[in-house]
Amino acid sequence: MQSLIDHARTFHQRLSGDRGRAAVPEEGVAPQAMFITCSDAQVIPSLITGARPGELVELRTAGNVIPPYRIGRLTAEAATIEYAVNILGVEDLIVCGHTHCGAVEGRVRSWTLRSAPTTRWWLLQTHRWRETPGTGGEDPARAHLVAQLDKLRRYPRLARRLASGRLRLHGWFYEVDTGVVSNYRPDTRAFTPL
What we know:
Pfam families: Pro_CA. This is Carbonic anhydrase. Reversible hydration of carbon dioxide. Its EC number is 4.2.1.1. Belongs to the beta-class carbonic anhydrase family. The chain starts with a helix and ends with a strand. The protein is α/β, with parallel strands linked by helices. The protein has a 6-stranded mixed beta sheet with strand order 2-1-3-4-5-6. The model is unreliable at 131-136 (pLDDT under 50). The protein is globular and about 45 Å long. The chain is built from 8 helices and 6 strands, in the order ααβαβαβααααβββ. The chain has helices spanning 2-9, 11-15, 45-49, 76-87, 102-108, 117-124, 140-153, 156-164; strands at 33-38, 56-61, 92-98, 168-174, 181-185, 190-193.
């Protein structure tokens, strides 16, 4: 913990260099994209994308889970997505899954989450992603990612923006061991390197 404290203590000195105030325009934040990913510490959106401060809205959840849209059901995830798209004007939504995802493994082997009942419930109530076709069935993490994309398409305001071309949805898959990032192509139902 001490190294984290020391880094935070001197962060302002590093920020005043080339990543300083120039990174955020005077008129306010205008992010290029929203990056929805797992809360796993191995996945670092700004390292993967090279984003500078103000360029990326991040949403991190256990297993990059998107809750299903339900009228009257408030979730922090839905509110964050709505704010990024409707208020900040984000035109690209990236959902990024990854290899060695503990949440997906926990979903596959629900017994591993007995000591984390809230996490287990969160993962079990989200989607029957094992039934998602076209993901090569042998990789539950990729099938899980496709299921999250499917849920986003069911959010009414996102669906309208997707249909009108004012919003683009991307499914990325990050291989922790190699650093390779692949993109899901719905037309071929395959993942291809970016």
